[in-house]
Write a structure and sequence with these properties.
The chain is an all-alpha fold and about 475 residues long. The protein has a single domain (about 10-460), classed as Growth Hormone, Chain: A (Up-down Bundle), CATH 1.20.1250.20. The protein is built from 15 helices and no strands. Helix 9 packs across helix 10 (about 255-285) and helix 9 packs across helix 14 (about 395-425). The longest helix has about 60 residues, at about 130-190.
Length: about 475
């Protein structure tokens, strides 16, 4: 049996460098780096296809719906789809071990990517708005499912104590993957030989490598010398008991509050994204007014300009995210603990939307969205993942995917409902939507305060369980 004391005496020299980013103990570095590479590749794949989603949606016309409404209502449709899918996913987690669950879900997503590349406008089935909407739905599922599954796997590998120390390091891989993925996607779109839709196929490369790294981590455990506990997990189902995701969330107030907080913060961020998207489409439509007589040329220019704008936006969001994740998150955690991680992003959001209420300009909103989203993807993302460290395997592989997918999409759905009611009934201006966001941020603060208290209580319970072998 491998004990922690055996691994605190010495370690590779490169681990000294890793300690710039997190509290890495001897012999924990190799597995941590593999996990860094794993999430790096997942996020790189996602940010290769994300601008394609926006570009495809920009040329998707449905009746008299505006682009803002199409985007918002498509997000709401994801919630309905997830309600059907998640109990099925939970049954698979209760039947398959974590190796098979990760591999099979990843391969399925790869096959679907190929199918979407074949249905792009002008390829096989011509131009149909159905495929633009379906691709929008799929990209949302791709991100929350694979990323949520990865963090559940990390929590399973590390446990509460090591996860609290090492998650800031692992999350550097997410920030780096998002930054490079968006930058690479932007550069590839500029090449004459590569169409924007070709990024869908290119994304298969990092996705395949990510699956390979996950399989390697599953074999080696934390230190590369798997204990009996690790080898037992090779054979056990990912979630040993099938309590069901909804039952778990309703049964535990901690999970219920986590789900509600994630829904509220997603509502806030998505509403801000929708405001930005509407302003972008209006601005570009004015710039391209001279092409209105040529619908094909207008669609092409709108698609390319939108993809380029969002490629640039995602690059800056992810670049700032990388800086925050690499050099700021662990220091915030050391200085202020979990409370500071939970409070930082809603504070930034409050300042951002208060500024937008008085100066609703496209350039300013873009700058503020970079600040909000980068804080969300680094500081708040680390806090959200750490909330799950003291939970059980059933919660990790059944409740967590539900919270990270369904409640994220419910937040998107509430943002869509806000657009519907605000636009069609109350005829709200952008300032009106911003004021709604400010109210939601205040609710977000209240939930964060409650979760900090509950997290402390759950952590104390997790620190005194029956002794467990190290993995």
């Amino acid at each position: 049996m491998t004990t922690e004391n055996e691994h605190t005496e010495s370690g590779p020299r490169y681990e000294r460098l890793l300690r710039l980013f997190a509290d890495v103990r001897p012999h924990e570095g190799t597995t941590s780096l593999i996990l860094v590479a794993n999430i790096f590749l997942i996020l790189a794949a996602f940010y290769l296809i994300k601008p394609v989603r926006e570009g495809w949606l920009a040329i998707t016309d449905i009746g008299d719906l505006s682009k803002l409404e199409i985007k918002a209502y498509s997000a709401f449709a994801q919630s309905i789809l997830l309600v059907i899918m998640l109990p099925w996913y939970a049954r698979l987690a209760a039947r398959w071990n974590r190796h098979d669950l990760i591999l099979r879900v990843g391969v399925l997503f790869g096959v679907i990517l190929v199918a979407f590349w074949l249905t792009q406008p002008g390829m096989i089935l011509g131009k149909s708005p159905v495929f633009g909407i379906l691709f929008y739905l799929f990209v949302g599922l791709f991100s929350v499912t694979l990323v949520g599954q990865f963090w559940a796997f990390c929590s399973d590998i590390y446990g509460a104590e090591r996860g609290a120390r090492l998650f800031p390091l692992v999350a550097v891989g997410a920030a780096l993957g998002a930054t490079l993925g968006s930058w690479i996607g932007r550069q590839l779109i500029l090449l004459p030989a590569i169409d924007a839709f070709d990024l869908i196929l290119i994304a298969l490369i990092p996705l395949g490598l990510a699956l390979a790294f996950a399989m390697q981590t599953d074999k080696r455990g934390t230190y590369g010398e798997p204990s009996d506990w690790t080898t037992d997990r090779w054979e056990e189902p990912a979630a040993p008991n099938n309590e069901g995701p909804y039952n778990l969330i309703l049964k535990h107030r901690y999970l219920s509050a986590t789900a509600l907080m994630i829904m509220i913060f997603t509502w806030v961020v998505t509403s801000g994204d929708n405001i930005l998207f509407g302003l972008v489409q209006s601005a570009f439509a004015e710039d391209l007014a001279n092409l209105r007589g040529d619908p094909q040329a207008f669609d092409l220019a709108m698609r390319e300009m939108t993809a380029s704008f969002y490629g640039d936006l995602y690059f800056w969001v992810n670049f700032v995210t990388l800086i925050l994740q690499a050099f700021v998150v662990s220091r915030i955690l050391q200085a202020g603990g979990m409370r500071a991680l939970l409070y930082t992003t809603p504070f930034i959001s409050l300042m951002a939307y208060a500024s937008m209420a008085f100066m609703p300009f496209l350039g300013l909103i873009k700058f503020l969205k970079v600040a909000e989203n980068s804080s969300n993807y680094s500081i708040h993302n680390t806090a959200r993942q750490m909330l799950w460290l003291p939970t059980t395997k059933e919660m990790l592989y059944q409740a967590k995917p539900t919270v990270d997918t369904l409640f994220v999409r419910l937040g998107d759905g509430m943002a869509a409902l806000t657009i519907l009611i605000g636009t069609r009934i109350f005829e709200l201006s952008n300032t009106g939507f911003v004021i709604i966001n400010i109210i939601l941020v205040l609710i977000w603060f209240i939930l964060s305060k409650y979760l900090h208290r509950e997290h402390e209580r759950w952590n104390k319970a997790a620190e005194n369980p029956a002794p467990r072998e190290f993995i």
